[in-house]
Write a structure and sequence with these properties.
Blueprint (H helix, E strand, L loop, with lengths): L5 E10 L2 E11 L4 E5 L6 H8 L7 E6 L11 E4 L13 H6 L14 H13 L15 H14 L4 E5 L7 H14 L4 E5 L3 H7 L2 E6 L1 E5 L7 H8 L20
Parallel strand pairs: 3-7, 3-8, 5-6, 6-7
Antiparallel strand pairs: 1-2, 1-4, 8-9
Helix pairs in contact: 3-4
Bound molecules: adenosine-5'-triphosphate (ATP).
The site of adenosine-5'-triphosphate has 11 residues, from helix 1.
GO molecular function: ATP binding; ATP hydrolysis activity
Keywords: ATP-binding, Nucleotide-binding, Transport
Protein name: ATPase
Length: 252
């Protein structure tokens, strides 16, 4: 078996005097599509930030692509939960996505044809070609979410980390984000943080329930009801979304 893409052992993170992650042991392998669910404040974003090397463990270990977190920025795409920016800043969608190529550049190296072709490709893939010249500040929540996914994909990542990418999108757009992830999973390892338990448990290979400690379920689709109740400390129903029926199957 190949080395894991992410391997953590007894990972502890303490922030502001509080243990946010307690003794996480986790192995993520190439081609995995891992869903992470858990209550607000359970440590999901902190775990992603640890993988990116933005938060340091207080004890235990974490290795990413066999090395120190943060040592392979060009191999990881990150879709943050939200983007803080000045809505008046003159940046269009294509410009935002082009920034995703930065991790592949050497210091002061200029963007070239390959970068612009990659931007065209990911704008097409994410359905944003028609609004490539629209100002980022004018985008709807769902369009911005897609643009952030496109930016992450522009770097040609081997590992894609997504922090609640469907938080501010309508049901239609949500399905199209999941459909996009279904396409991408053939090409990269994916770790997806979401509160949309029903949708992700049907799609991922494994679900990790995170509330300071981590409980891994090998088969996402069979996530036991009791595990969710324990995780959220109240009764939880996973709402399973149905695939939209394609026009040629209607009336079957
Ligand atoms: N820099 C920090 N200093 C102190 N506490 C922090 C810091 N960053 C995060 N925390 C705390 O750590 C806990 C976990 O935060 P985190 O953002 O990882 O949770 P989450 O599971 O992603 O939550 P949500 O579902 O609400 O996005 C929270 O209680 C948060 O307040």
């Amino acid at each position: 078996m190949k080395d894991p893409v992410i391997a953590s052992e007894g990972l502890m993170v303490r922030l502001g005097g509080v243990d946010v992650l307690k003794g996480l042991s986790l192995s993520v392998y190439e081609g995995d599509f891992i869903g992470i669910v858990g209550p607000n404040g359970g440590g999901k974003t902190t775990l992603l930030r640890c993988i990116l090397g933005l938060v340091r463990p207080s004890s235990g270990s974490i290795r990413v692509f066999g090395g120190r977190p943060g040592a392979s920025p060009g191999r990881i795409g990150y879709v943050p939960q939200r983007l803080f920016f000045d809505r008046d800043f003159p940046l269009d969608v294509a410009g935002l996505v082009l920034m995703g190529r930065l991790s592949r550049k050497r210091l002061l190296e200029r963007y070239g044809t390959a970068d612009r072709l990659k931007v065209d490709e990911v704008l097409e893939l994410t359905g944003l070609s028609a609004i490539r010249r629209r100002a980022v500040g004018a985008l709807s929540g769902g369009e911005l979410q897609r643009a952030l996914i496109a930016r992450a994909l522009a770097g040609d990542p081997e590992l894609l980390l997504l922090d609640e990418p469907t938080a501010s999108v309508d049901p239609d757009m949500k399905m199209s984000v999941y459909d996009l992830l279904d396409q991408l999973r053939r090409r990269m390892t994916i770790m997806l943080v979401s509160h949309d338990i029903g949708a992700i448990s049907r799609r991922v290979t494994r679900v990790a329930c995170l509330n300071c400690t981590l409980d891994m379920h090998e088969d996402g689709s069979s996530l036991p009801r009791g595990a969710l109740d324990d995780l959220y400390c109240y009764p939880v129903d996973a709402i399973h979304h149905h695939e939209p029926v394609s026009p040629d199957r209607r009336g079957d």
